[in-house]
Amino acid sequence: MTLRKLSTSEIARPEPAELVGASRHPIVVVVENVRSAYNVGSILRTADALMVRHVYLTGFTPPGDHRGVHKSALGAQDTVPWSHARDSVAILDALRRDGYCVAAAEITDSPSTAQDLDPGHFPLALVLGNEIEGVSESALERCHLALELPQFGAKHSLNVAVAFGVIGYDLVRRWHHLN
């Protein structure tokens, strides 16, 4: 059997307007103080692929209409519902009131993985922190749990956009497994 790469014209893609009202996974992402517009664009592209409900860009994170975000988002800023707010804590408090389980992508003393989640953990809000300092203490205080990626090498972190890709796909797989 020989595999043939599909051309872009052969790949069925919905129009951005079709995605606005589409059924989405019960996952939102809170991006807290991520400085790099390119990381934000990559997060939006991955959020598009995962069909998450919303991406909250908070603190000094560049908004989705930033020129640098567009460069790496490649149009995902138009297909993923996003908003920008100064205060991540207010967003997290509102999500908790709305019944979301809040999970930090962070190394903590009591880590969990996506495989540990049960139906009661959804809908889920995933908090992604700053490239250097991680999730803020005030945001971490509002989290129900921390999702940790095992690190086998000398370094103890991944690029924030890469980490979101790994955790995001694990969360979507877990959601489908449970439902």
Topology record:
Blueprint: H1 16-20, E1 25-32, H2 37-50, E2 52-58, H3 67-73, E3 82-85, H4 88-97, E4 101-105, E5 111-112, E6 124-128, H5 137-140, E7 145-147, H6 160-178
In short:
By secondary structure, this protein is of the alpha/beta class. The chain has six helices and seven strands, in the order αβαβαβαβββαβα. Helix content is 33%, strand content 19%.
What does this structure look like?
The chain has one domain (23-149, 160-178): 3-Layer(aba) Sandwich (Alpha/beta knot), CATH 3.40.1280.10. A seven-stranded parallel sheet has the order 3-2-1-6-4-7-5, with helices on both faces. The chain has helices spanning 16-20, 37-50, 67-73, 88-97, 137-140, 160-178, and strands spanning 25-32, 52-58, 82-85, 101-105, 111-112, 124-128, 145-147. The longest helix is centred in the last third of the chain and has 19 residues, at 160-178. It is of the alpha/beta class.
